[in-house]
């Protein structure tokens, strides 16, 4: 597997290009995790969303994705969301469909009623007045309950992540990492989640997940603090969006370093790229200008596929087979009225449809071909 670090050419087809400082890295031929976050899918379908093959024939979305090689599905779970989607009941429903489609399940527990990320880690409303000991117990009981319900319907999850993009901690302010940080509290909350998973299902792996996948200083800082407190986990999850998180070389350096430093496997559990800068729902997209793009990767179907292919190559090349795979985020979030970003506002739009794996005619994009073994 050859990874060209931070080099690209805009030469025409058939032209010669010369590169220096090429690094040849031995890697695995295949990735075991070829996944997609498809948290938007159930609500999309309920509101009339459809999905089509590359030749634009309508087809069940999960069967389509599976036929293209997608073998893992990731689903976010909120405690008590305003619109009734992305909760435990939906998870249980979708887990049965994943099982029928031959996909393994990664459960993304946000421990919030809405989005959790480095800028937002709001407690569920039902937990707001808990003491810290009560909060730890709530994390344990909620995690165990979600896991057990999945197990009892014979859809035992392959992996559960304790929190989402935990750069700044979780369940603010009790588990935050800003100055002065509450590392001891955060460690106890993460341990409560880990213990719950293993008490319910010892075979289920536990992931800890950060954003900013090209920032090695961040990962060393965070995981050094967590491992010093003997927090247990099985897999490191990384978000990497090239227009925010540094170069592909930065990603490669970070993945290679953290897998060796902590002795853990890694998954790029969120990545995506636009196939167009055009808009499909009148709601401005997060990436909407040419200046937002990564050099060498145009906002075209081919540019989207190239970015995904190159991220996959970097994960394949992680030494000792520690790079398990990738998950594309949110592959099915097309522009369907009512399926916007704000669960409390049905009129909110989708700022992501130009990064889905389906175009504005709902037809599968070439990037889906990258999942084929």
Task: Describe this protein's structure.
By secondary structure, the protein is of the alpha/beta class. Helices cover 29% and strands 14% of the residues. It contains eight helices and twelve strands. The protein is globular and about 60 Å long. Mean pLDDT is 94; it is low at 1-6.
- The count of β-strands is 12
Largest sheet: 8 strands, parallel, barrel
Helical segment tally?
A: 8
Q: What integer is the average pLDDT?
A: 94
Helix content: 25-40%
Main β-sheet, spatial strand arrangement: 3-4-5-6-9-10-11-12
By secondary-structure content and strand pairing, the structural class works out as alpha/beta
Shape: globular
**Termini Cα gap:** 15 Å
Beta-strand share of residues: 5-15%
Radius of gyration: 20 Å
Low-confidence stretches: 1-6
List the helices and strands and how they pair.
Elements: E1 2-3, E2 23-24, E3 33-37, H1 41-46, H2 61-67, E4 72-77, H3 88-100, E5 104-109, H4 132-152, E6 159-162, E7 169-170, E8 175-176, H5 183-200, E9 205-210, H6 216-228, E10 235-239, H7 248-262, E11 265-271, H8 301-316, E12 323-328
Parallel strand pairs: 3-4, 3-12, 4-5, 5-6, 6-9, 9-10, 10-11, 11-12
Antiparallel strand pairs: 1-2, 7-8
